[in-house]
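Appendix B. One record, verbatim.
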Amino acid sequence: QVQLVESGGGLVQPGGSLRLSCAASGSIFSIYDMAWYRQAPGKQRELVARITPGTTTNYADSLKGRFTISRDMTKNTVYLQMNSLKPEDTAVYYCNAVHHTSFGDFTYWGQGTQVTVSS
């Protein structure tokens, strides 16, 4: 079982940048697909970006070019670099870890970190 703790959220002006971090502990970090999701008020949680242990990445189409996901295996941490932020990026951002096994997928979530984009 893995524990996930997000950090780096906050208030930023439109056009600004933030980097979110998600520190993983309690298990072998390298076996997990890691992802960032977000949930805005009144909306469903949506995938932002995902990165595999082999560092293959995929992104929500609307966010390509502005957001970058990465992982540091030495620090058991996954990052989300967010640039050119817009008010519509305001949401709670959640870190997600998935371990794919022959018995099924084991999914874990962090507690979330608030990102607010406003002038």
